[in-house]
Amino acid sequence: MKREDFDKISGSIPRTPGIYQFLNKSGTPIYIGKAKNLKSRLSSYFTIDQHRQFRTRMMVSHAREINWTVVESEADAFLLENTLIKRHLPRYNVMLKDGKSYSYICIKNERFPRVFFTRNIERDGSDYFGPYTSKWRANILLELIRDLFPLRTCNLNLSEENIKAGKYKICLEYQIGNCAGPCEGRETVESYDAKIAQIKNILRGNFGPVKKHLMEQIEFFAEQLNFEKAQELKEKMIAFEDYQAKSTVVNPRIENIDVFSVEIDEEFAFVNYIRVVRGAIINSHTEEVKLKVDLTEADILETFIPNLRDKFNSNAPEVLVSHQPGWVTEEVKITRPQRGDKKKLIDLSIKNIKFFKLHFYEQRAKFKKKPTHQDRILKTLQSDLNMDHLPRHIECFDNSTMQGSNTVASCVVFRNGKPAKSDYRHFNIKSIEGQDDFASMKEVVFRRYKRMINEGESLPDLIIIDGGKGQLSSAVESLRELGIKNQVTIIGIAKRLEEIYFPGDSIPVYINKKSESLRLIQHARNEAHRFAITFHRKKRSQRVHQTELTQIPGIGEKTSQKLLRAFKSVKNIRNAKSDELATIIGPALAKKVKKHFQKN
User: Fold this and answer.
1) Between β-strands 318-321 and 280-290, what pairing exists: parallel, antiparallel or unpaired?
2) N or C terminus: fewer CB in 10 A for the chain?
3) Is the peptide bond before 29 cis (omega within 30 degrees of 0)?
4) How far apart are CA 186 and CA 180, in angstroms?
């Protein structure tokens, strides 16, 4: 990917936190990164910097496309980057491929619950808070909780029966003040659960009372000149302020969910899909839909929910939507959330649509085709012929005959002002004996468009007939019989003065002789004439050759063709010696050929 390629998309890149993916020509991620400011980070890859690592330069040179997904914060970007790197294992990512899971703080579902750090979530009724962007920060938070609320760290079974039986004795943790001794019944269940309730409040982000307590402690130790302890508490305060309690990728209870949102503009609908597994985004995809009929948001989702779920192989039991669709299945729960973590996911999905739209419309405006040379000519022709739309598909007909024999016709096709030679067609006149240009033109036009109608092909925008009013009237009669007269524009061009005739109008139109549009009509007419003449000559030559040679007894079409390939012409065959003929068709047939030409 080059700087000029990046400049074409840079205007639509948001200045928000998110992750970005460099994709190769096959659409596979080769590098995934996170950024606090997506635009600034991506721009840094395309600055002129000779000191950039060779690996980075190679990665950028192999990239063909950049995708990005916006999120709410840097921590969210870290988590989404983590998920995608482990999912795709991009070639140029050297970190985060170790398969580690996210960090959580667990409040165990047990009597006198333990509070501890973990990377594994067990569905046993325990409460999990996180994920955290670093184990270091999670440990600081745990230390702070243990400082404020002494808790047990042992894994003993503190059932009521065991405690009453005196199975356990207090340990060193009790002696140093880290535990209140529930193992010997020195702390009640009610007192312990009250502490757990406060810890849950802290982990959910209710920091007011805790921050107040910390500030008092920091001031106290500072006044006592115990700066080391004050600094330790200050670090814990920073950890609190940096803690992400309500992220859209924070709640591991969101186990397996698909998220769909939609927005509709005048011409396009935009649909975003987010795949969430175990509290983390593992897929984000947005696409646009050209609106051909009036559709509602519910109509769009009704189509895209099953299609995108199938595309991404999703079997999520719940689907979150921004609008209630008509799509219903007993296997999947459809939810339109109004608040909470699920509503935040919908908001994030809509946010991604807004950035996608910005990029889409900027690119559409930037790459909107400038009028080409052919477009200008077609626009002039449209104006000269007073047509409703550009004549991008033009077909021109011509007949060719000589003294009423071997009458043939041609149809040449122009697309966007240029010959489309693979679409050229020639015709043998079947229903007309002798020379009748009008009837021949009627037959050819009828056959051409009857077949196109039967095969469901699109009709041309403009039909040109090489000839004056008579040929034009015959062609129009065929169009009328087929019921398509009002669906196409048809004109005739007379050779002598280059007059343009319209059906039903005896007065011709004269286009400026220097006009590019007249030159295009003339080009089509000349091409049709050339194609017809070439075909006619071929037919006439075949007829002469075959008539002359196939009159010889024992000489059929294949033998005559063999002779013509060898000697190139009938004259050369007539002048050939018997032994020369014999080497091609054998002595018996060579004798018959020589005998025939000696008589004639």
Assistant:
1) unpaired
2) C
3) no
4) 7
What value does the CA radius of gyration of the chain take, rounded to a whole number of Å?
42
CB 379 within 8 A of CB 390: yes
63 neighbors 22 (Cβ within 8 angstroms): yes
What pTM value is reported for the model? 0.37
Report the pLDDT value the prediction gives residue 135, as an integer from 0 to 100: 67
SS3 159: coil
Dihedral sign of CA atoms 58, 61, 65, 66 in order: positive
| Burial class (CB within 10 angstroms; exposed 0-12, middle 13-18, buried 19+) of 547 | exposed
% of the chain beyond a pLDDT of 70: 85
Architecture of the domain spanning 375-539: 2-Layer Sandwich (3.30)
What 3-state DSSP class applies to 286?
Answer: strand
Tell me the pairing of strands 127-132 and 256-264.
unpaired
Strands 418-419 and 425-428: unpaired
Q: Are strands 393-402 and 405-415 parallel, antiparallel or unpaired?
A: antiparallel
* Residue 486 DSSP label: G
Task: Mention every residue, 6+ apart, whose C-beta is less than 8 A from residue 271.
Answer: 260, 261, 262, 286, 287, 289, 300, 301, 304, 308, 353
| CA atoms lying within 13 Å on the CB side of residue 416 | 5
Average pLDDT for 455-473 = 89
Q: Which of 121, 115, 116 is nearest to 101 (CA)?
A: 121
In the predicted model, what is the mean pLDDT of residues 208-228? Answer: 82
Q: Could you write out the DSSP letters of every residue in 301-350? A: HHHHHHHHHHHTT---SEEEESS--S--BTTBEEE---SHHHHHHHHHHH
CA atoms within 13 Å, Cβ hemisphere of 308: 23
Q: What angle, rounded to 10 degrees, do the helices at 208-223 and 135-148 form?
A: 80
The DSSP symbol for 94 reads -
C-beta separation of 353 from 69 below 8 A: no
SS3 assignment, position 236: helix
Distance CA 349, CA 276 (A): 12
State the virtual CA torsion across 359, 362, 364, 368 in degrees, nearest 10. Answer: -160
Q: Which residues belong to CATH 1.10.150.20 in the chain? A: 551-599
pLDDT (0 to 100) of residue 369: 59
pLDDT over threshold 80, residue 539: no
Kindly state the helix (H) or strand (E) to which residue 271 belongs, with its residue range.
Answer: strand 268-277
The rounded distance, in Å, linking the Cα atoms of 327 and 299 is: 9
Q: How many CB atoms lie within 10 A of CB 319?
A: 22
Alpha carbons 339 and 175: distance in angstroms, whole number: 46
Rounded to whole angstroms, the Cα distance separating 419 from 524 reads 8
Superfamily of domain 3-88: GIY-YIG endonuclease (3.40.1440.10)
Residue 412 confidence (pLDDT): 94
- Tell me if residue 195 falls in helix, strand or coil: helix
DSSP 8-state code for residue 289: E
Which CATH fold topology does 551-599 show?
Answer: DNA polymerase; domain 1 (1.10.150)
- The dihedral built from the CA positions of residue 158, 159, 162 and 163, taken in this order, carries a sign that is positive
CA angle, residues 158, 162, 166, in degrees to nearest 5: 110
Query: Which of 400, 393, 395, 394 is closest to 529 using CA atoms?
Result: 400
What would the CATH number be for the domain defined by 256-366?
Answer: 3.30.420
List, in sequence order, the alpha helices (H) in 460-500.
469-482
